[in-house]
Structures are given as structure tokens and as C-alpha cells.
Amino acid sequence: MLYLKETNLEDAEKEWLFVKDMPEDEFGLMNKWPGISFEDFKATALPVLMDHAKGLNLREGLVPETFFFLWDDDRIVGQFRLRHHLNETLRTGAGHIGYFVRKDLRGKHYGTEGLKLLLEIARNIVPEDEFYLRVCKINPASLHVMLNNGGRIVAENEDRFFVRINNPGKAI
Q1: Of 6, 13, 162, 167, whose Cβ has the fewest other Cβ atoms within 10 Å?
Q2: pLDDT tens-digit profile of 146-167?
Q3: Is 172 a member of any domain?
Q4: CATH number at residue 156
Q5: What is the number of structural domains in the chain?
């Protein structure tokens, strides 16, 4: 069974095993903790992730952001990030949502299903009428995930497509 679960202390070891093996930067999704030790993950990364979800200890220019892990039964298969609202930088950049699926599990619909689950959570958090996302043009699989979830391309630049998905109940 697929489900999203917010970062938490009880699952720290499985979360660490997932995060430490994520690349530092893949298609613009940044991981601040590649290769981190379990002790450092528990002492530094987890408190930051949990504080940011509550809007605590944010650096200037950041907004509250919740990290979720996508679980398939008892195994983490992906990570999804939800920024609770936009600021001007996010409005013209990364938007509300970022996600990563383990490389060996791509092409198995985890991205599409994980985004679908996240959008259900996001509709109760995000105040904007639309969810803002962006995707590198060299990552057509991720664009496909967004389009499968009702996304539409609203703009592009040399490197990226900018995608919007209606926020049910808030979109006009």
C-alpha cells in the first residue's frame, strides 16, 4: 500500500538510509545531506526538517516546507516536499512541490501516485489557487508525472517548463 508520511523520529533510520543515498542535486532537487552519518542525520537534519514544517528557524527568504516520504508498505520509495505558500522567489522558480523517486524504482508509477497523494494533502495547506511546479526539460518523465496529475505547462525558459495544477476548491 502506498502512503505519504511526514518526516518523524520513529522512522529516522529508514529516512536516513534513503536521504544519505540521494544525489546532492538531481534536476534541481537539492539534497543537503548526501552521505550523512546516522548520528548527524538525527542530530542535525531531522530537527531542521521538522522545524521547517512548523515554520520554525527558517532562514530569511524561506517558507515553511514539509518533507514527506513515500512508503510502499514498509519501504521508502520516494521523497516529496511541500512548500506551504509562495514567496516571489518560489512564484517564479521552484514553486510548491519537489519530489524524488529512487532510481531503481522509476517507471513504476511511484512519482504519479506520490504526487497525487501529496496534492490531496496540499489542498488543505496551500492558500494559492494553483500549485506551482517546475521541471527540467531533460526530465520528460517528471513532466509526464505532473501532466498525469492535471498539470498544464504555462511557461518555459531555455531549461525548464513551469507547470500549474489547479488547487481543488480554491481554483476559479
Answers
A1: 13
A2: 999 999 999 999 999 999 999 9
A3: no
A4: 3.40.630.30
A5: 1
pLDDT band of residue 126 (cuts 50, 70, 90) is: very high
Q: Which domain holds residue 119?
A: 2-166
CA distances (Å), origin 26, targets 51, 107, 116, 129, 156: 24, 17, 21, 28, 19
- 63 within a domain of the structure (yes/no): yes
Task: Check whether 105 has a pLDDT greater than 70.
Answer: yes
CB-neighbour burial class of residue 136 (10 A; exposed 0-12, middle 13-18, buried 19+) = middle
Q: What percent of the chain has pLDDT over 70?
A: 98
Helix axes 140-148, 110-122, angle to 10 degrees: 50
Instruction: Report yes or no on 70 lying in a domain.
Output: yes
Q: Are 78 and 101 in contact (CB under 8 A)?
A: yes
Q: Quick one: pLDDT at residue 167?
A: 95
Q: Is residue 144 part of a domain?
A: yes
Residue reference for cell 512508503? 71
